[in-house]
Amino acid sequence: MEISLTLFGDEESPRVQIGSNVRNASDLYLESPLMAFLTSIPHCVFNAVLSVSRKEGITLRCRVRAKYVLDDGYLKVGDYVIRKVILEVEGGGCSKDELKEVVEKVKRECPIYLSFRDRMEINSVHLN
Questions:
Q1: pLDDT tens, residue order, the chain (128 aa)
Q2: Sign of the CA dihedral 44, 46, 51, 52?
Q3: Burial per residue of 17-45, b for 16 or more beta-carbon CB atoms within 10 angstroms, e otherwise
Q4: Helical H runs in the chain?
Q5: β-strands 61-70, 82-92: how paired?
């Protein structure tokens, strides 16, 4: 089973889409520890992408889609254990190569990715 969410908008007040519902990230942080955790990973990567692109002088519109792949064995007994986190940085307003360069730099600098790279992948998806 997977849990998916997409974080988008501006750095100060990003929005999160889960299914067809869209909420402020700040509201999800207050909702429950699980929602705060699920929101925090794409939020960290979102901020890292925007920070790196700004430093590099790259104009970028982005959103981060997070897919949490759950361990079905644990889920059967009611425990949410995440096997893998797949993050897609969807970007536009820049070239495909610039987006890829930003994502590679984030992989070298982002503390969340560096801490969990054995269970996490970050991919770039260029939008025209």
A1: 999 999 999 888 899 999 999 999 999 999 999 999 999 999 999 999 999 999 999 989 999 999 999 999 998 999 989 999 999 999 999 999 999 999 999 999 999 999 999 999 999 999 97
A2: positive
A3: eeeeeeeebeebbeeeeebeebbebbbbb
A4: 25-31, 33-56, 72-75, 96-109, 111-116
A5: antiparallel
Q: Which fold has domain 2-126?
A: GMP Synthetase; Chain A, domain 3 (3.30.300)
Tokens of 82: 């995440």
Amino acid residing at 88: E
At 13, the amino acid letter reads S
The rounded distance, in Å, linking the Cα atoms of 74 and 71 is 6
Alpha-carbon distance of 10 to 94, in angstroms, equals: 17
What's the pLDDT score for residue 12?
A: 86
